[in-house]
Amino acid sequence: MGTTPLVALHGIRKSYGDLLVNDGVDLDVRPGEIHAILGENGAGKTTLMRVIYGLTTPDAGRIEVGGAPVSIASPRDAIAAGIGMVTQHFALVRPMTVLENVLLSSAGLGPPDTEGARRRFAEATELLGVDIDPDVRIEDLSVGEQQRVEIAKTLYQGARVLILDEPTAVLVPQDARALFDALRRLTASGLGVLFISHKLHEVAEISHRVSVLRQGRIVDTRPTGSSTPAELAELMVGRSVAAVLRDERRVGPGPSNDEAVVIAVEHVSLDGSTGKRLLDDVDLRVHRGEILAIAGVSGNGQRELADILSGMRMPSSGHVRVGRQDITGATPTQVVACGLGRIPEDRHGSVVDDLSVEENLVLEDLGQFRRGPFLDKRAIRRRAEELIARFAIKAAPTDRIGGLSGGNMQKVLLARVLAKDPRAILVAQPTRGLDVGAGEYVHQQLLARRADGAAILLISEDLDEILALADRVAVIFDGAIMGIVDAATTTRAELGLMMAGTPQQALGGAA
Amino acid sequence: MRMLLRGTAPRWLTPALVALAAVLTLALTAGPIRLGGASPGAAFTYYLVRPLTTSYTVLEVLLASTPLIFTGLAALVAFRSGYYNIGGEGQFIAGAIAVTAVTLAFPALPLVVSLPLGLVAGAVAGAAWGLIPAVLRVRRGIDEVVTTLLLNPVALLLLQGLLNGPWRNPTNQFPESAPVGAGWELPRIVGGSRLHLGYVVALVLAVLAWVVLTQTRVGLTSRAVGLAPKGAAFSGIPIRRTLLGAALASAALAGAGGAVQVLGLQHRLTAEVSTGFGYTGIVVATLAALSVPAAIAVATLLADITVGAESAARALQLPPQMGKVVTATLLLCSVGVLVFRHYTLALRGRRRGARAAGGAS
Amino acid sequence: MNLIALFAATLVTVTPLLYATIGEILCERAGVLNLGIEGTMYAGAFVGFAITAATGSIGVGLLAAVVAGALAGLLMGLLTVSLGVNQHVAGIGTTLLLIGLSEFVNRLRFGGGTLTQVPKMDLLFPGVPFLEMYALTLVAFAVVAPLTWWVLRSTGAGLRLRAVGENPEAADAAGINVSRTRYAALVVGGALMAVGGAFLTLAVLGTFTLNITNGRGWVAIALVIFARWRIGPAVLGGLLFAVIDAGQLQLAIMPAFAHVPRELLIALPYLVVIAALALAGEGLRYPGAYLKPYRRI
Q1: Does A17 contact B6 at a Cβ distance shorter than 8 Å?
Q2: Is A29 helix (H, G, I), strand (E, B) or coil?
């Protein structure tokens, strides 16, 4: 194509301490094009976007806008060069109104021209095809609406290139649809879009070209239509992905009668501080030797449910039991004593980053490592060395846990939980951010526990993971369970509809 | 110029940065010292070296370090758990007041009874003074910095009220309490020096604090709470109880320090029982990076400077407040410079770096 | 109780608190807890006094105090914004340093012996009930408070400052220089605190005494929280504190209260603020980036 790219990157390199995250990246976006950047978590996508937007200073490389080299040392430079960015964590000041947020980038020191801003913002929302009240506070808007504000804000600032970092991660499917429609409108008017994602089907649907980023390098750039999702997946992870096949599992699920129930979530509801119902009558049973998955777009109550089961939060009503013991409102210590192992979504939030691996391994049961009034440091060391060997953790007992890679940290958490032979396991997003090897290791460990008769409640946003591991799938939407289906017979379409808020009964014969 | 996160720091870095902070402190305080008409070299000889050259002044340094060890430990115990007790000053005074009350109530007691009783009275009063902020923090989430801070002037006013009112010395009408009975005075431990048993008490408490903080479960859990409350809570550590315990232990240490200062040195309660020991304790804990052995060393260093500043005032006519200036400068230089354990400075701007790379490609 | 005297005393007490509290609000709304406030007021009091003594001009003295306060703000900025040092420690250290320096120079220049007197500010409307006040008091109520309220609420500068204190990442992404904005808040805030301090020497006492600020900086810190970081409630809170403080002076001269220790009455306002904090505590909404240094990764 002969058109000059709106933005072009040449040889971008960036490292954090000893870690190289971008390694000689070349990339461009042309007018009217949606260029997808595909890569696993940790491939360096976000850093690359921060570089383009002036939030991160690269160690080497240059950026051209409209064919001319520019220096982008801060977002101010990026905005001036016609670049706009929408990140996963919106750059919005929550207690301020939409209009105030819009004014942030353009206001001088004196009283701002609010009427002019109102007018121009209305033009931007019109171009986007949405309707936003400029006088509402950000914190009163839904996530989808906040994202629209973000995009309108970049248009208001005169963006010609839009960078979207995992824009659908926080959206329900209808909002994602609306977003795609809006993006098509924008590209039709000549804008360029950099669309960052790790979701293959999205990339296939929306983009014109796709670049695959792996370990900080662009491994290939090609027209989207010329490759199959399987080829892209292979490029992304660096080898052919044999999806874990269901028949790899050697044992069928355990008995599903009342006797076999290990985890029982009984009519649990939770009201948020603003009065919004975060969980609405959630009722689930997980049996011995079974993996029950909870599927859903993040932010639909999964975290709250996990907190309640973990002993971190008290439900407004309902009960939680493990075996015969009622653990509603129990402390984490009591929950663990009941035989429930917890592997949460937020790994850094469940360990003490600045303590060592061995200290974190025993933090839950310090009572067992005592000699008189003192800690038995030798026993702690022995236990750590044993677990490090057993779970193939690449770390020394005295290493700071916060410095470990995601995979190694997850192994420490697995070790801490599985060493106690729990009869029930709560695990959330177990492979998020892990490389393929570490992810497979985690899956194997969970399947092995299932074979040994543990009841596992798996919370995941990754349908591939769910379909590979689960016996049954419960879909959560807006705090309520839309339905529970057999993983062997369900379809992605059925799950997708429920994830979008259609209850199972309403699907009727459609599924 | 910008700061970048560094990878693994070399082993020599921390000592080098500490040395840099010391040099910076010397350089920055040289100006005011000259302004005072003294030569910086002579002044620092007085501050750092002279006090350590005679056995009498060495013992004076140890004497001066005694209250700082108490308040330093107090700050350290609280900070390790992430409880920012800035109220050591008020708790120190509360301890001094309480022990005076006990001495007035039971003037004649043998040392075996009076010493433990005095320490307990001071510790309990200190803890009581720290109780309200601790409960407000734990129960209602109110920032303890402000509440502990505000109670400092209140303690000082209480002290002044007592000395101007009911406790005014009946014989000379000075605003100071009557002397404590002979059985209450902590014995001196070295002939010819004012150094008293309180120094030994401080060291014993320091050893005890070190053992608890590094060798026991409580020490590990409180450190976990200070480093990452969320992660600690997830691991089943009771956050509120840990914070409350740390807050009260901290306040009790400061209070015991106040009691020891009355019984060991002043032998009566005066309005000047604390010359900002509570605040200096924060300096001690921070400069010691929350380590107990280092806290004793830092308390000794600051005491050295204080004793030196007094003799420099006599010998060089340099106002003794210079000691405070040196201490505060040392604190700010240290915390400022030690940031570079985790960061490096990138001197080249992005533009030049980008151009250089562009030229190379 | 003499209402006119109470009113006049209230105005005198509230003035330094207003400057300090408004200065602290600016710092905290930008995300920096400035515990250097006590030392900054102290330095403002001393520098104002010392320069007035040297030049004989109150105006020059006041200006010098402003400069000293701005420099104190710069020091806090260097520590907490550029270096990202723990804000509690930086603030306490700054306070200790500024008090130490002020006392050092005071001893050096005005050392021992008689108190040096400097000219005092004149009262506006002397002798007129309810109108008798210092110009700095009038300026605080008629200019500084409404102006900062308006700036925070309705100008680009206020918008930037609030954004930087609530969500520095968002402010940065909007092209706002987070460091520069925080520095500006600290410098202006420091200057205001120093004016509050200088009021004590140049209007109230006409001289400098040790421990002159006497914890007023800490009171301002409490008032900021009490007012939930807003100017209007801060003015009201300051007035409330000042009325109690001035009231205890009035009470002390009344026979019925002759036996109540003076110190207890002086301590009363501190206790009232703590009680108010305890009551206001739940649902307090701190600025989003309170105590958090910001650095691009």
Answers
A1: yes
A2: strand
CA angle C115, C120, C125 (to 5 degrees): 150
Q: Taking a C-beta distance cutoff of 8 angstroms, is the pair B77, B242 a contact? A: no
Given the cut 0.90, state whether the ipTM is greater than it.
yes
Q: Report the chain A residue with the minimal C-alpha distance to residue C285.
A: A95
User: Has residue B105 been placed in a domain?
Assistant: yes
- Given a contact cutoff of 8 angstroms between Cβ atoms, the answer to whether C78 and C34 are in contact is no
Q: Whose CA is closest to C71, among C213, C184, C198, C187?
A: C187
Q: Which residues contact C89 (CB under 8 A, 6 or more apart)?
A: B282, B286, B331, B335
Q: In whole angstroms, give the CA distance from residue A490 to residue A510.
A: 12
Q: pLDDT tens digit string along C38-94?
A: 999 999 999 999 999 999 999 999 999 999 999 999 999 999 999 999 999 999 999
C242 touches chain A (CB under 8 A): no
Q: How large is the angle between the packed helices C58-76 and C178-199, nearest 10 degrees?
A: 140
Nearest CA to A302 among A267, A345, A335? A345
Residue extents of the structural domains in chain A: 7-237, 246-346+422-510
Structural domains for chain C: 3-110+141-280 (1.10.3470)
CB A193 within 8 A of CB A34: yes
Element (H, E) at C52: helix C37-55
DSSP assignment of B188-215: BSSTTS--BHHHHHHHHHHHHHHHHHHH
What are A63's strand-pairing partners?
A: A9, A70
Beta strands of A3-86 (E only): which ranges?
7-16, 19-29, 34-38, 60-65, 68-70, 83-86
Residue contact C175–A105, C-beta within 8 A: yes
Spatial distance between the Cα atoms of C179 and B326, rounded to a whole number of angstroms: 28
Q: Is residue B309 part of a domain?
A: no
Token representation of residue C109: 């220049």
- Would B205 be classed as within a structural domain? yes
Q: Which pTM was predicted?
A: 0.88
A246-346+422-510 topology per CATH: Rossmann fold (3.40.50)
Q: pLDDT tens digit string along B29-86? A: 999 999 999 999 999 999 999 999 999 999 999 999 999 999 999 999 999 999 999 9
Residue C216 vs residues B87, C93, C200, C222, C267: alpha-carbon distances, Å? 16, 17, 11, 10, 12
Structural domain harbouring B132: 65-303
Asked if B328's CB is within 8 angstroms of C86's CB, the reply is: no
Enumerate residues 106 to 135 of chain C having a beta carbon within 8 A of any beta carbon in chain B.
107-108, 111
Query: Strands across the sheet with A455-460, in order?
Result: A340-343, A424-428, A455-460, A291-295, A472-477, A480-486
Q: Quick one: how far is CA B311 from the chain centroid?
A: 22
Yes or no: say if B50 and B304 are a contact pair by the CB < 8 Å rule.
Answer: no
Token duo for residue B264: 């060991």
Q: What is the CATH number of domain A7-237?
A: 3.40.50.300
